[in-house]
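[Automated response] Your request has been received and processed.

Submitted sequence:
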Amino acid sequence: MASVLNVVTYAAPPLISLKPAYGPVKHVFLIGNCGYTHLPMLRLPIKDIEAIEEKMGELARVEISKLTDATRDEMAALLKNPLGAGDVFFAFAGHMAWCDGDPLLLGVDAVGDTEGVSLSQLLGWLAPTYGQKRRADIVLAGCLTQTSTGIPPEIKYPRKGGFVILFPSGFGQVALEPEHGEKSFFVQGLLPHLGKDLFYAAPTIAAAVTKQCGRQTPWVQSNTRSPEKEVSSLDDLRTELRKVHMSSACDTGPLRVQSKVFDELLNNERHAVKEAISKKQEAEALISHNFPNTPQLCITDPYADQPTRIRIDKISNQQVMEPSMLVISHTAGLDLSDVIYEFRQSGIIQHVVITRKGELLQFVRLLERAWHAGVAFWGPLGAAGDIREHKKVHDVNSHSIGISLEGDG
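Generated structure:
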């Protein structure tokens, strides 16, 4: 049974570390809930928060306030206190739930899954007031016993302020805990990167956590933007895409691809589509995963003599598993506005579209499944000719990244 620690109220927050340095103080708020009264008790949230507290205390100009085993009212009272200048780091570990599409951070006195502090409330509290600038990093190490579905689109970021929200697991996954140990898989991967830009550290954190537990991939959601950067080579393009492949936003930010890079991609699409699809080296440079040996790719004609053997549901948010290929195509002469309209109507699109001007538009997160390869698959068929009857059959959409170039080929 987890030990219950005393509650430290926000009215008199303990000043853990305030080291001499220049610049505004960074405010750190930590909540760890283990001793739930009506829900299953948890073993690691307080230990996770204490580990984060220790790491953040090593930074300069940091003021830390911590709540442990906090009730809903105590958490709500925290969100009523005005914030001064300076960036904010907020971390919660404990049970979470969903209420009307809004994630809830549950207090230890929660009876059901409708009693807690909502993410919308938290975002509103962290939003800067008039004349302020603030970056807020939010770490939600919750959902320890339930499936995480991410932030729904109706949850809007405040108009002011930059927000980065880091989750312990991706879509359709459950955040796992080790059977033994003092910290969760998620916090073990997070700790080395505290004090850094979590948005760009997210791919490294995800790779570390996935390597540890094998079935959990953290992801990040953000409305921040980096300074405009010009991409002058394919290697630079891969690097920039790798930085943002965890983002759930619909564009990568102010990246611009030089015309020579666009021409090189377009040339690949025109003359070597199959070769470009199966280039394991390009995919390895793009995604931070361990790659299996790339199989010989075979594009299957859906109008062949056995069209019924192709049975793949059109699901745009299925998790991509071990991507090992790039699928390069073009927009068939459609204007970009038409491409966006078709995506909104059907959900069928590549992961990334590169415009003639070199702008990158991300339609689907690179760790999710798009519908860019149609009905292509590889692997032997089952005895009855149905690809579902053989475990070695894989559809290309679930194992590749799709890049579309604005043009007609």
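Summary generated for your ticket: The chain has a mean pLDDT of 68. The longest strand covers residues 26-32.
If you did not submit this request, please reply to this message.
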